[in-house]
Amino acid sequence: MEKADDGTSYKFTTTSGLVYVAYFTEFILLDVNGEEIQVVSFGFACDRPDETKRHDSRVKLTIIHIVEEFFATQSDEALLYMCMDGDGKGRNRYITFGRWFREAGGLLEKYNFASRDPKARFYSSIILSSGNPQKQRMIDAFYYTISYWGL
Asked: Radius of gyration over alpha carbons of the chain, in Å?
């Protein structure tokens, strides 16, 4: 696994040759008073030259490791995971990530949102350390921001 020089992404290759990139970006949540809360958004993608599925259980372990490493160094942060369903696979990615998170266990908490609007098809989670002193404010801002978008 290679970490980018700026610390915002990782790149790794599976034994079957699939290349994954996991990345972090800044994201702004709004609280009920309209104040901005800066958090981090996390995502990952696979450069799949063909559409064949090649399961590699170590992908799950690598993604979990990256998330745990993030919180080991930034325990008072929140991490967003968002899936748009433009390709029809967002819901599956969201469910898979949720399963990986549950299997990992640990001291992290995850709060979820799944759009009920069949046109929006938006899925998101916020992950926080159980001991985060701003936990409730960030959770409230997560849901407030989603409702602000009208999802």
From this structure: 16
94 contact partners, CB below 8 Å, separation of at least 6: 81, 83, 114, 123, 124, 125
Q: What SS3 class is residue 137?
A: helix
CA distances for 139 relative to 9, 10, 49, 105, 127, angstroms: 25, 27, 38, 19, 9
Question: Could you tell me the two tokens for 17?
Answer: 């040759």
The whole-angstrom separation of Cα 137 and Cα 144 is: 10
pTM of the model as a whole: 0.84
What is the distance, to the nearest Å, from the Cα of residue 86 to the centroid of all Cα atoms in its chain?
17
pLDDT in tens, 77-111: 999 998 877 666 777 888 888 888 888 778 899 99
